[in-house]
Amino acid sequence: MSQSSQLAGSAAATGLVKRAWNSDLAYSFRRSKVTVAAGIVTLIYLLSALFAPWVAPHDPYDMASVSILDSFLPPAWIDGGDSRFLLGTDNAGRDVLSTIIHGSRISLGVGFASVLIAATLGVTLGLISGYVGGRLDAVIMRIAEVQLSFPDILIALLIDGVIRSILGPGAHGNIAFVVVISAISLAYWVQFARTVRATTMVEKSKDYVQAARVSGKGTAYIMFRHLLPNVMGPVLVIATISLALAIVTEATLSFLGVGVPPTQPSLGTLIRVGNDFLFSGEWWITIFPGIALAIMGLSVNLLGDWLRDALNPKLR
Amino acid sequence: MAKAPLLEVRNLRVEFPTRHGTLVAIDDLSLHIDPGEVLGVVGESGAGKSMTGAAIIGLLEPPGKIAGGEIVFDGQRIDNLPDADIRRIRGRHIGAIFQDPLTSLNPLHTVGRQITDTIVAHLPLTARQARTRALELLREVGIPAAAERIDHYPHQFSGGMRQRVVIALALCADPKLIIADEPTTALDVSIQAQIIVLLKRLCSQHGSAIMLITHDMGVISETADRVAVMYAGRIGEIGPVSDVIHSARLPYTIGLMGSIPSIGEEVERLVQIDGSMPRLNETPPGCRYHPRCPQAFDRCSVERPELIAVGSSRVACWLYDDSNQAQTPLPVRAAAKTNRDSPRINGTASAKPLIEAEGLKQYFDVSPPLLTRILERTGRRIVQAVDGLDISIVRGETFGLVGESGCGKSTVARTIVGLFDATAGTISYDGASLSTREERARNQSVQHKMQMIFQDPQASLNPRWRVSEIVAESIPRSRRAANGGVSARVGELLRQVGMSPLDGDKYPHEFSGGQRQRISIARALGGEPEFLVCDEPTSALDVSVQAQILNLMVDLQRSLGLTYLFISHDLAVVHHISTKVGVMYLGRIVEWSATHRLFTHPLHPYTRMLLDAVPDISKTGTQRTQVEGEVPSPIDPPSGCAFHPRCPFANDRCRTETPKSIMVEGTSIACHAVEEARLPSWKAA
């Protein structure tokens, strides 16, 4: 009995893999070379970020292994370069490649966390707004519209500044991540809310929702059990595109010096720090993190574009 | 045949290349249309009817393409013409009318401009001459005050009037052939009747031939000269209309005819064809109908039958092959006749109603926002969807509610089950009052005994849920623990509606429309209801599937003792299933009585009009009385009797005083003319 059910289970699993591979989504992914390339690049970033301590050739924040004597070494293929440091070293003698790998870990982490929070907030408010309607809808949507009339980065700066001034300069170091993440997520929830609201309003008039109401199901049950799975398609698309935007926003904040602390630098911090040495000839300290950021943003964005087209039946 | 055919299609094959392989939508189809002839093409959805029409006028949606055969129009081969040349023929020599009059017209141009543009594109006329011709055409298709209406935009016309404009558009270059793809499907019965009469008259005047594509046998039988029955991309039977309708030879046609409820006949069960049309990627070998055919034999599953002459028709069926004389087809209607005036369940119907609504009103506020109202100095706009409706349904009966679109049928259904809070009036169920939301909350256990079945089987099941979750949804919490739990109950429910418990693991998109409707019924039964509100449960289904669902509903009613409120715009379906029928017009029931009585002795002029308008297969070749006008808007209903602007018997009293319901020989009727005995007696059909 258990063996047969296990067999059935594994058969179902292989069937599922087969179905997923043959699905229209996978097919449209496979067909576009650009998308496949973007997918591979994103995967490399994700893996190297996840396993940064093992992937990076050096530990740039281990004071014992970093030597000030190695500072300002150019990339390995340029005269005076050192084969130990492929992309050269910075002012403190840290390996630029390793700082980039550790930095993208922070960038991606902050990006994922902010998108997750922004999506949760936006989807919930969008569902409520779309399903309940009336005054509540008007209030939520007016707030969203007011916020949309300001640039995202300004909102993030504002929230960041407010939280910092409330907490005072001393407390800042420990909660810098929390501040940055909440600033970014509060800047990005509107997109989610508006899209989810629109989809919800279409879905709620469908008869399966009416059937649930006839069976006496409550508002929360209908919103989260019935409607939520049906509005997740567009959310996935926005989440992917927002991830790219959130990474860039975090980099901008860090570049402006209001982001993550310099002790745990993200790509944005690296660019800012390296920026000081750009005109004294040590261009590699800022250019390589910049290229890394650009490629990361581009590939995540390309993935988002593919997802948007693949999930939109009108563009097929 | 003396004349050469106007259109000849030979061995047409339409393919859709997909990445899973090539789908053949139309396979080796041949037909011809003579000048001035009306050829009806019928079949259920997926049969390839519309595809055939689209292939002829070169409007196949890519990636679909003609992969074989040829189309000859007026002596010229047109299937291989370049785009520019086929465009010159399309509109000039072949006109097209599509199903939805709303999307067939450009909303940004006046109808006059759209017609004159088309005329100028095809005929050597100046703009002024074209306008004169457009005006003539609009008059010809029966647009009142055409000189004024010519400068109106499409949204200023009603659905029926828009379809008339579309017909004018198709006729503007005097084409020799018109391809009409479901021209009346989106319209109400009374409007449908007007359009059919119009099409027939115009084509005989202009000498145009029509290829009339529809799923509605009634429309075909009244309009067409010859009929082609299509199944899964092939023609199964083609011949003169009277032969195909009344002495069909193909088992599929026979089944199809038997599955259509008819007002002329009373049967307990409809002839049922099991299964449904195969999908394009799983067409069976041999005769494509053999898996559903009651008379299939070995040869049917291996060898594909071609059309052979049988009598005056041509039939693609091995039953009529010379080597096979022994087989004889089934009689058209095998079902038994019964007395239908008594309720179906055992035990006499108690006089006490199970569900009762009195003075039910449901108004919707569709006013523009306050600021707009102040700036434009307009008042509130209220849709009086249901306006003082009384209904009472006795346990065990099926109350059919009919009416045209916009009369408030669905609103009644939704108000009774509690999806809307009634604006005024009372609703009571088995003595318990359910008029307000508070009362419904207090009487939860009673509320559970009402369930609803919806029209659109696509939208009524959550696409992200498994079938077992969907069916389990309505099982009340108190029942979840009993008798082996939810999964046992779900299996039982699925079996009850004729499905397998194994289907519970699948998702709704894996099922056909009819199966989805069965799932929807299973969900409704999960709440162990006594009373089911069915809102057009078969309108989105093909006739053969409709017959399955109607039979299932009759069976369930008998075994579970259910009471139905059955809402439909289709008089024949309501006639078939109901024990009592109410006719709704603009938010009120104008007449109700026992089914048999209502259909044989209709009193209200509106009921009579509806009965006159419904196309029926028993009315082949008959002339119909034309009905004027359309349903007015429920935002601003006419004073007095709402029907008076369309009523030939209206007098001053009808225009000012709202009629009250009175009982006349067992019929409840709201009509001054009946009260004053001014009505002529109804001619028995």
Q: How many β-strand stretches of chain A? A: 0
Please tell me what the overall shape of chain A is: globular
CATH topological fold name of the largest domain in chain A: MetI-like fold
Q: How much of the residues of chain A is beta strand, in percent? A: under 5%
CATH structural class of the largest domain in chain A: Mainly Alpha
Low-confidence stretches of chain B: 330-349
CATH architecture label of the largest domain in chain B: 3-Layer(aba) Sandwich
Q: What structural class is derived from the secondary structure elements of chain B?
A: alpha/beta
Determine the oligomeric state from the structure.
Answer: heterodimer
Largest interface: A-B, 15 and 28 residues
What is the strand content of chain B?
15-25%
Q: What is the general shape of chain B?
A: globular
What proportion of the residues of chain B is helical, as a percent range? 25-40%
The span between the termini of chain A is: 45 Å
Separate helix tally of chain A: 11
Helix content of chain A: over 70%
Main sheet properties of chain B: 8 strands, mixed
Q: Any idea what the radius of gyration of chain A is?
A: 23 Å
- Can you tell me the CATH topology of the largest domain in chain B? Rossmann fold
How would you sum up this structure, described in words?
The complex is a heterodimer of chains A (316) and B (685). Chain A is mostly helical. Chain A contains eleven helices and no strands. In chain A, helix 7 runs antiparallel to helix 9 (219-255). The relative contact order of chain A is 0.13. The mean pLDDT of chain A is 85. With 685 residues, chain B is α/β, with parallel strands linked by helices. In chain B, 30% of the residues lie in helices and 22% in strands.
